[in-house]
Structure formats: C-alpha cells, structure tokens
Design a protein that fits this description.
Blueprint (H helix, E strand, L loop, with lengths): L18 H31 L10 H10 L9 H6 L3 H33 L12 H30 L12 H16 L4 H5 L3 H21 L9 H19 L1 H9 L4 H4 L3 H12 L8 H27 L23 H15 L1
Helix pairs in contact: 1-2, 1-4, 1-13, 4-5, 5-6, 5-14, 8-9, 8-14, 9-13
Organism: Vermiconidia calcicola
Protein name: Mitochondrial FAD carrier protein flx1
Amino acid sequence: MPRVYPPLENRQTLITLSPSIVESAAGFTAGVVSTLAVHPFDIVKTRLQIEQNERSRPGGSWRVMRRIAAEGGGTRGSPLFWNFYRGLVPNMIGNSVSWALYFMWYDNVKSVIRAGKARTSPSTKLGKQELRPSDYFLASGLSGILTAVLTNPIWVIKTRMLSTARNAPGAYTSTVQGTLSLYREEGLRGFYRGLIPSLFGVSHGAIQFMAYESLKNHWALFHRGGTKDNLSNIDFLSLSAASKMFAGSITYPYQVVRARLQTYDAGKTYKGAWDVVTKVWSREGLGGFYKGLGPNIVRVLPKLRWTRHTESVRNLAENGLPKHTGVYTTPEHETMAPRTDDSVLIAALVTSRKLHKR
C-alpha cells in the first residue's frame, strides 16, 4: 500500500512547461491512442484505394476484410489479429510524430508572428499581441506543410506495408527493412512519393472549418435559443463529426491519388499525380476517386473524441483547469494530418472561440 504524507503548509509545487512541450506531448498521445483504435479501418481503406482498373461496387469493404482475414502472415499469435494490424508501427510513428511536430511548429510559428507584430508595435508587450484570423491560418498552413514534408517518408513505408500481406512477394516485413529497401531501390526520391497531393490536404481543414461554423450557427439559431453559449459537448462533437465527413467527401480524392503514388510499383505505373488523375478517371470513373471512403469515415470518427481529450490535457497543463472549448478534429492527418488534413481547422477553431469571447 502506498504511503500517504500530509501536505506541507505554505508549500505549492508549480511545474512550468514550455508551450511547445505541452503541445507536442498532447499531440503525441492523441496520435498513439487514436491509431491503435482505428488501424484496421486504415488497412481496409488503403487496400480499396490502390485497387486499379476496377470500378467501385457495393460490398467492397467486406470483400477486402475477408481477403485480409484469409492472408497468411508467418507471425506468432493470432494470425487474424496481426493481419489487421500489419503496418501498425509506421502508422503509430507517423501519426504520433505528425501530431507532435504539428503542434510544435504551430506554437513556434505563432511566436514568430507575435514577435513580428511586436517590432511593428513596440508599445504592446510581446505576450499580449493579438493574432488575427489570417495569422492563425498562416501559422496552421505553414505548420501543416512542414509536417507533411518531414513525415512523408514514414507514410510511404506505411502505405506499402498496409497495401500488401506480410508474405506477399517483395513486401516489406518491417519498418526498418522497408526503409533500407526503399533507399536501396529508389533513393531519397522514393521517400517523397505522393508529397504533392499531400500538400493539397491543407484545404481539408479550411473546408471543414467553414462547414463547422455554418452548422454551429444554424444549430444554435434553431435549437439552442439563438446563442452559441447553450451548445453542449454533444452538440460540438456531432457538429464537428458532420463537418468532418462533409469536408472529407469533398477532398477525399487527393488521398486516393497519394496512395496510388506511394505503392511499390508506382514508379513504373504512373508518371506523376496528374497521370494518376487521368488514368483513374478514364478507367474507373468518378467512383474511383472515392474508393475506401466508407471505412475512412468510420476511421476518423473515434479520433474526434480523442482530440477533444487532447485539448483538455493541453488546457489543464497550461492553465491548471479544464475549459469548455468545443471539439478539435484530427489531422490525418489522415490526419492532420495531422498529415496536413486538419492543420488549418485546428487553428481556425481557436480563432473562432477567441472572436466569440470578445
């Protein structure tokens, strides 16, 4: 039984952490937990995205799930479990590092913007500089781009591992083996396949934010007496999920293009992102750009709750008590994302709440 000591009078322990450390730690935690929960859906989504020359048809997700369940893996333990968790290591590394890097860059870029404003307005203290909505969008956009560039190599490994069974010819057997094989066969260029469509993911957050604000205003007007102060946590969660699905439906095609460019034989099959677009359109039609959308929607919904929890952790670490702040929704990517998917949205929601409090 642990020993209990009485509190010391007139003593208070105060630990002050750097905002960058708080942001990075909270983001890292969200990335790990959310990835563990939804990884099987990520595999199904990836398998559907890379199916070539085959038009979408009902029951595609169940067909892929049955195929994954029947695969051999050569691993100890439950084959079924490991089949649906193949590629978990690069996925966890990618998501957790992406979250951590994004929040770190976001905080630092905001500090740079504040410093620039302080030089132009010397009468205002550095820590009191008010950022405009455009400043938050700039900080989030730059953070998303930097995160995408730095983490793209791990996403290439992840896509290739998720797209094949462990015992498939030429398949990567581990993250380390995949990294060495990719460098040996394709050089540094291979680690940045699919980067261009990844950068388009920044638009996902902007579209989701516009949808989120519109839904929030209408819901408050017709169901909560016309004031946003009456919105509950369930309201925030539901509206965030709806806006997430709306934005995902519009911007989802870039994920298919990115996945095709990151497969094992992408260098021989496609000349670039535009070549993927033209071939998918001509051979698979509009539906080809939305392969895997169903499991993707299921995959992102649990992350909404964990990102809400992450925001509470950040507020607790920074201010000592939780705040009612609404819901943050995840990158990619894939997430935020974040894989740049929700980088704009994260900052935009902050801006929205700051303006609402004035």
